[in-house]
Amino acid sequence: xxxxxxxxxxxxxxxxxxxxxxxxxxxxxxxxxxxxxxxxxxxxxxxxxxxxxxxxxxxxxxxxxxxxxxxxxxxxxxxxxxxxxxxxxxxxxxxxxxxxxxxxxxxxxxxxxxxxxxxxxxxxxxxxxxxxxxxxxxxxxxxxxxxxxxxxxxxxxxxxxxxxxxxxxxxxxxxxxxxxxxxxxxxxxxxxxxxxxxxxxxxxxxxxxxxxxxxxxxxxxxxxxxxxxxxxxxxxxxxxxxxxxxxxxxxxxxxxxxxxxxxxxxxxxxxxxxxxxxxxxxxxxxxxxxxxxxxxxxxxxxxxxxxxxxxxxxxxxxxxxxxxxxxxxxxxxxxxxxxxxxxxxxxxxxxxxxxxxxxxxxxxxxxxxxxxxxxxxxxxxxxxxxxxxx
Amino acid sequence: xxxxxxxxxxxxxxxxxxxxxxxxxxxxxxxxxxxxxxxxxxxxxxxxxxxxxxxxxxxxxxxxxxxxxxxxxxxxxxxxxxxxxxxxxxxxxxxxxxxxxxxxxxxxxxxxxxxxxxxxxxxxxxxxxxxxxxxxxxxxxxxxxxxxxxxxxxxxxxxxxxxxxxxxxxxxxxxxxxxxxxxxxxxxxxxxxxxxxxxxxxxxxxxxxxxxxxxxxxxxxxxx
Amino acid sequence: xxxxxxxxxxxxxxxxxxxxxxxxxxxxxxxxxxxxxxxxxxxxxxxxxxxxxxxxxxxxxxxxxxxxxxxxxxxxxxxxxxxxxx
Lengths: 390, 224, 86
Fold this sequence. Notes:
The complex is a heterotrimer. Chain A is of the alpha/beta class. Chain A has helices spanning 19-27, 53-66, 78-91, 119-122, 132-143, 158-172, 188-196, 260-272, 291-303, 315-318, 325-339, and strands spanning 4-12, 33-36, 46-49, 103-108, 150-152, 177-184, 217-218, 220-227, 238-247, 282-284, 310-312, 341-342, 358-359, 364-365, 370-377, 381-389.
């Protein structure tokens, strides 16, 4: 298959504003999930992972100066600021010219600027910024991208799907470079919804652990730049390989009870990559820490005969960042591959799943050449993607 | 999915069926099957259509407007197909719209406006994601393969054509439901096409297939 | 109790969008989940919202839901018991 290279990446989260910064935080074993009391988000205290607003505003002002923007920073919504910061960090050392017709911006988000539905924001922003295409347009115009962005909104698999869609488009020759950026923010809208599902844990989440009590939400952004030209960016040659999307066709919110559809997607992604399941060195799972999701994933990994493969979830560090998760977590996989380090699955202590999958309980040095990313989401969707060093 | 060296070059693709729904009008099977001079609300319109077409699916009433619209479109699109024809995984679903799930988002936001009467509803919240309509279609028809939901300001046949063509060219599916499902309040417009490779297409007797091109997609969505 | 049962039937039909079902179709002693109405996990969560919204009763542990929501009658009994305590 035509080579698609990962030439650069960025992560913005509670743990930092760069991919390497977040990797360092992982190495120190920090979690970004804290107990917050913020009445704008909920009447109850929340275990949640939030980006530092003060630091975000400072960095954004610097970027405005760098790009010689005349507007006031207050023109931009929280999510727009985060996306712009993320993209700017990812492209800053590249030869990339956003105005080139062979460059495409791809945006992944579940709810975009949904905070604008709140009364306190109605007077501050044009109501059309609620639309995901308007949000994408703001990012497009900031950097001067020539093409209309492609927007993927497919629940929690959006980020992985955005990478899959981008790599397929690059292989078709339609574009040469894709700047794939995903983000979602913490809002009362989303928090109240998950509360109605009784899905939130009162403490930081514990993926795959026997005492897991639900998910922790998080906000953040991830950007990955893909290109068919390896020349620019990363010195390590890391490729995006095969990817596949499937559907459980079972229930709109509960996952498949067997995991076979996720297993199908994993096998298809691996098969398309021209390798075998036993060639996978490392799996980064979705691992939301709900009872049913983690159970389903454990079954899927077993069905695909990858029980022995070291596996982790990053949600113990960042919470579930929804539309950003696939991109932030893929960028963290790239860090693992660059550092040859397998990060411990934060929050995991005692196994709580059927079968014997191999959840990483402490950070270790290990060569990571071929990694598998999986994700699942509301609507019964699943996605799987392979990364490989050349 | 076959390794790259077995892949054939781009194949001819056909639209072998389509449905189109807008306020008061429904086209399926190449003809106008439903017409209402003045529609009062979407809810009444879609219920009348559901009953007229004698669809029986109790979960229909739990769906939000976007899912009801997409569900019925798919129901009308596929009803003449042999149910065993698409082995699970071989029929993909690629849909798009402009407002995502905003119609339902507004309902959810309303339920949390007032802290003293704070009753967010899980059955509303679950529909605050545009791709749930794909989930409903997949559950109904047992579709386990590729699926995607894209957003664009206006109907964008170019991106849809690229995405769907790639899926069929690389044998990720044998056929694909490709459509635009847009609703906000009582304003709605939806179209769904069944796209297949010419070599394996199943042509129904009275349907004249159209080539899968941007021009064809534009023609269908402008049907009056 | 009968009055509450009839009221509950109406409320359940509304809250769960059971449009093609009338109160006469619901037997107060039939299981709500499994067969009969074919309710699912989201419906179970909606019933929790119903109890809080219409009767001010908060269910602390969702696992108790199985017993409480077994049938319309068990729901009515639970409401009667907990409204007395309040």
